[in-house]
Queue: 2 jobs
Job 1
Amino acid sequence: DQQVKQNSPSLSVQEGRISILNCDYTNSMFDYFLWYKKYPAEGPTFLISISSIKDKNEDGRFTVFLNKSAKHLSLHIVPSQPGDSAVYFCAATYSGSARQLTFGSGTQLTVLP
Amino acid sequence: DAEITQSPRHKITETGRQVTLACHQTWNHNNMFWYRQDLGHGLRLIHYSYGVQDTNKGEVSDGYSVSRSNTEDLPLTLESAASSQTSVYFCASSASGGPASTQYFGPGTRLTVL
């Protein structure tokens, strides 16, 4: 039973447009969410995070939105650049989980020039 | 600069052999983790450690073991490799304290079990 789901395995976006990556979760105990980005043959790198006490967190071109009632979060990339092409993983944790992360299956983003 | 390294980067072995994957971090982080990445499953937690002499089982720990004798290293051992353990393995570390569980990942080891 996947507690963190990324239902879109892939997404293609034109350069300069907005990319929206989605993530749903089922465990209501999750109170901290993270996005990681992964290039081929490299390890995942931390991108942005959000605490459940917030509904939005912004860092440059990247914004994460959290809708707790819907158990849904999304990552917005504006404007998208070809270098953003990577696999994006959503992850979640909660304070009682001893800092373990539960990952989604990932979404391959391709930004077309 | 602090970093986390894994070795080897690629390994081919035969069914039944014992294999050890190394993970070394210079962040001085107390927490270390091992994941495997498989298509359609994302990253799944194998084992984790919150300090020297501490080890815990994760979601997919069967067939794997770890030991933590110092802060820097958490080697992952496959006691008797099986074809189902063909995967890409990632090691990660994080600092202690607080809910901000940002983990920093190594570059991965691609393991093939024939």
Job 2
Amino acid sequence: QKEVEQDPGPLSVPEGAIVSLNCTYSNSAFQYFMWYRQYSRKGPELLMYTYSSGNKEDGRFTAQVDKSSKYISLFIRDSQPSDSATYLCAGRDAGGTSYGKLTFGQGTILTVHP
Amino acid sequence: KAGVTQTPRYLIKTRGQQVTLSCSPISGHRSVSWYQQTPGQGLQFLFEYFSETQRNKGNFPGRFSGRQFSNSRSEMNVSTLELGDSALYLCASSTDRGGGTQYFGPGTRLLVL
């Protein structure tokens, strides 16, 4: 079993829809959680960064972390065709043995059609 | 501020050869992490360097190695290439404060024939 599980999709939605992307993780030591967006043939781009449990909002994006259920979510409001990409969730623990190591989910392929 | 840069962007090698990839981090970032991305395994952590020292290593064979220079630039080397080494190799830099938010470069796409 992978430490971070993510449904690869693909997910296809109409423009303007609310998109919900989810991950579960098994490592209780994870304290930092990120969402990255990756366009085809590009490197991942940081979207959201969250410490511990709670919500964080940035424009059309909202990240939620529920450590009690080990569940990570990303919501995209008013989705646009330019949001079409692969979305990657990642976690990291705060321990000294985890220097520089993010553990990623498999990524969800999202297509927003006009 | 300039982002993370990686060279070369594309590379074709044959089995048994070796390859060296380069990464220049964001100015002021002292931590560089390397990842391998494949369709089957996704993004997997290779190793991390900080102040010229390897602090962490993932589960990859010894054919994968790296180093970091005093200006924080980093290189990774893969010796005796195998077909399965074909992948996108990504480096990410961070300030390593707190959670160490990582910023990725565009990657080097390696094809082993």
